[in-house]
Amino acid sequence: MSSVENGRIVVAIDGPSGSGKSSVSKAVARTLNAAYLDTGAMYRAITFSVLAEGADLNDAAAVAQAVRDAQLQISVDPDAELVQIAGQDVTQAIREPRISENVSAVATNLEARAELVRRQQEIIAANERIVAEGRDITTVVAPDADARILLTASEEARLRRRGLQLGGTQNDAQLEAQVLARDAKDSTVVNFTEAADGVMTVDSSDLDFEQTIAAVLDAVQAAKKN
Ligand SMILES: Nc1ncnc2c1ncn2[C@@H]1O[C@H](COP(=O)(O)OP(=O)(O)O)[C@@H](O)[C@H]1O
Ligand SMILES: Nc1ccn([C@H]2C[C@H](O)[C@@H](COP(=O)(O)OP(=O)(O)O)O2)c(=O)n1
Fold first, then answer.
1. Complex ipTM > 0.90
2. Engineering a disulfide at 18: which of 78, 145, 158, 197 sits with its beta carbon 3.0 to 4.6 angstroms away?
């Protein structure tokens, strides 16, 4: 009897923008009958909130305070995406390009990270079975996870996927700003391009969506056997 099907399991998935973390992690969570935590949505929600208040995203102390004060609620149901700030539904708004272009200001704020990591660890501890994805889940948020996976894909594949996902509304320069330039900024505080010790890499460049889900599920099985 495979141990991935029953009992407590924490699956940690990291990777760059457009590698398929959110969509693949959600599908993996459904298959494992687990909760799903999109940690990037938390960074995005804080960015939305700071912009909505008209505060300066470059004011590190103000951003750190905004995170501590944030009344942030996030659904962990893989079939019911919902992100709320002070009761306001921001699920769709946090995906807008203006958020993608500004979110690194929150992601590179170390005090903001510490508070969000703390909240993420609380959510993971509160769920018996959970798949959590982001940039530092395998290394900082849940280094003791049962399975730790780095999901990668070539730059070309990631730009193409994000372009399709945004319905062709963004030109090449805009996509590069939202994917490659953002990753470059985020990489200054977290390493999500190389697998840490004990982290398995799944490269989805030449895999379609279903094949990527299967490859991640195989990696989870393999990790649980060790
Ligand atoms: N292996 C794959 N092949 C093709 N498209 C994919 C694959 N994995 C994910 N996608 C698609 O690429 C887009 C970006 O995926 P997403 O899960 O949002 O990535 P991330 O969370 O890493 O930024 C989505 O539209 C998703 O459906
Ligand atoms: N654990 C995490 C998750 C996301 N972030 C940051 C880095 C990203 O620029 C933003 C948004 O993350 P998100 O996963 O939504 O980004 P993409 O799906 O790759 O576009 O948050 C982080 O620093 N640490």
1. yes
2. 158
